[in-house]
Amino acid sequence: MKAFFTTILFQPMLNALIWIYGIIPGHDIGLAIIVLTIVIRLILWPFQQSALKSQRALQTIQPKLKALQAQYGDDKAALNKAMMELYAKEKVSPFSSCLPLLVQLPFLIALYQVLRAGLTSANFDLLYPFVHNPGTINSVSFGFLNLATKSIPLAVLAGLAQLVQTKMLPMNRPPAGAGAGSKDEDQLAKVNKQMLYIMPAFTVFIGISLPAGLTLYWVITTLVAVLQQWLFLRIHKDKNDQVLEIVKP
Fold first, then answer.
1. Burial of 164 by CB count in 10 Å (0-12 exposed, 13-18 middle, 19+ buried)?
2. pTM, to two decimals
3. What is the Rg, in whole angstroms, of the alpha carbon atoms belonging to the chain?
4. Is the dihedral of CA 172, 174, 180, 184 positive or negative?
């Protein structure tokens, strides 16, 4: 399994990073990481779009799901049957938003591993014959940032990018015409508010322990994800659509 992962994912991405590093003027590894991260995100763009569309579809039927919950109450068997019938009728799967993300996971893990190894010559024996072996990698990027060492400012920047993305997480809305929020809705609002700050803080905590090259990757991939979700909202959201609204602090 490890050999399959190395041959199919790790090796091509490693070669892509070193090839980009070799052709970029000044041989800047930071720019090479940015370019590779954007390219990978573009390749995985259709899967992310599929996940966003699935989230949108699930959000759309939330009022109907809440109506079923009110109708069947504690009758779990009848409620589950009614929910499955609703999913089938609306052609929506409760797991449809997770599957595209799972498809992306091996690629993102491979890219993470490549960036861990990309600043050293430990895996240069995996380079293809047509990719120039640079011998060593200059880990200083943009003339001042050593991507082989930790960077607190870059970790904070990653946390801020994560904050923006967290503000764009899907949230459940009460059904149209509903009165004051229920206990469950109030609890959901509290969870959303907590996650708004917990995820960015966790990102900063992890980021300050990683080499700056990995933190740079996290900043760029998060910003690309934010851009993609913003574009999705611009294209698919109309005046009556409350899907994927910004979570208010």
1. middle
2. 0.74
3. 22
4. negative
- Start-to-end CA distance of the chain, whole Å, equals 44
What would the pLDDT profile of 68-110 be if each residue is shown by its tens digit?
A: 878 877 778 888 888 888 888 877 776 666 666 677 678 778 8
> What are the Cα distances from residue 186, in Å, to 172, 190, 192?
11, 6, 10
C-alpha to C-alpha distance for 138 and 109, rounded to whole angstroms: 24
Judging by beta carbons within 10 Å of its beta carbon (0-12, 13-18, 19+), is residue 26 exposed, middle or buried? exposed
CA nearest to 235, candidates 247, 246, 243, 224: 243
Q: Which amino acid is at 22?
A: G
Place of tokens 């041959």: 7
Q: Are 119 and 211 in contact (CB under 8 A)?
A: yes
